[in-house]
Write a structure and sequence with these properties.
- With 294 residues, this protein is mainly α.
- It has one domain (3-293).
- It has helices at 3-31, 36-58, 70-93, 96-103, 106-117, 124-140, 153-176, 182-197, 205-208, 213-238, 243-249, 252-264, 271-293.
- Helix 1 (3-31) crosses helix 11, helix 3 (70-93) packs across helix 8 (182-197) and helix 8 crosses helix 10.
- The longest helix has 29 residues, at 3-31.
- It is globular, with a radius of gyration of 18 Å.
- 52% of the residues are buried.
Length: 294
């Protein structure tokens, strides 16, 4: 595999680790009275403002797009807004592990799209990796001990919607990255997602609400590290590897969430969960080996 290919997997994996930490942080904020809508509103607004300031200083050329591309970025921003809202809504209604499990069915949807519309043929290694990453997620989050049928139906619907929207974001981003730099795609996606989130249902509710210092710390962490940096790395990875491979690699998120909880919260992992971790890592390794052989 080329050096660029290895960096592509690395960027997506690091993005997954950063995003993994936002799940627990978000649950903390929800327990403190912050709603999913408020969090998405303030998160997208801060992320787009930080990106605008950074790009204006570091590389103003990233802010230039053609008028013809504007509808594409508006759509991308609305899909990103829907992804985040559905994900946080699911977390507010059901267990974080269950919400992550449902959202990370997206690799299957991305693979199905690639097979049906882009004429991308999947090798046996890719098909096996999709199955392995899905089963690994199932084991790692302990889903075998979760009665999905007894969970809040609205939360389940939110998790499945998040998977669908994440798949759409991946496919749309891959298309936009053929013409624009990763940070350009991310900025306009964040900008239009902030516009979408702050229009409905309660305009600017998240920006006008008062927060204490601890809440502000986690909001800034989620907005900058968990959104601007995480999505930026994901887009950089998408430019170097296929969307199917990127979405499978992103299943490291629940693995990272479990590992973070183990080291910082003292949550133990049983043998089945450890097996799930190794299964996801093995699936990603299989993708890389298969690409080398081709």
């Amino acid at each position: 595999m080329s050096a660029s290919g290895r960096f592509g997997y690395f960027y997506v994996a690091l993005s997954a680790v950063l995003f993994a930490a936002t799940g627990t942080a978000s649950k903390f904020l929800f327990h403190g009275g912050v709603t999913p809508c408020q969090l998405v509103q303030v998160r997208t607004a801060i992320a787009s403002a930080v990106l605008l300031a950074w790009l204006a200083l570091a590389d103003p050329s990233c802010l230039r797009i053609s008028r013809q591309s504007l509808p594409r970025f508006i759509l991308l921003g609305f899909v990103l807004a829907a992804t985040m809202f559905a994900y946080f809504y699911a977390i507010s209604k059901i267990q974080v592990a269950a919400a992550i499990l449902l959202q990370y069915q997206s690799p299957v949807l991305v693979a199905a799209y690639a097979l049906a519309f882009s004429r991308e043929r999947h090798s046996p290694a890719t098909v096996l990796a999709i199955a392995g990453s899905g089963m690994g997620c199932y084991l790692a989050v302990g889903a075998y001990s979760i009665d999905l049928l007894s969970l809040n139906r609205a939360g389940i619907a939110g998790g499945l919607a998040a998977a669908a929207f994440l798949s759409g974001y991946t496919v749309l981003s891959e298309s936009a990255l053929r013409k624009y730099k990763p940070w350009t795609v991310l900025f306009y996606a964040s900008l239009f997602s902030a516009v979408a989130c702050n229009l409905l249902p309660e305009p600017f509710e998240g920006l006008t609400r008062s927060y204490d210092s601890v809440q502000w710390f986690w909001i800034l962490f989620i907005s900058i590290a968990g959104t601007a940096v995480s999505l930026g790395l994901y887009n950089k990875g998408l430019r170097l590897i296929r969307s199917t491979h990127a979405s499978i690699t992103a299943t490291l998120q629940p693995i990272a969430a479990a590992v973070i909880a183990f080291f910082f919260l003292g949550e133990t992992m049983n043998a089945w969960q450890v097996a799930g971790v190794f299964l996801v890592v093995a699936s990603i390794t299989l993708l890389q080996v298969g690409k080398n052989r081709r």
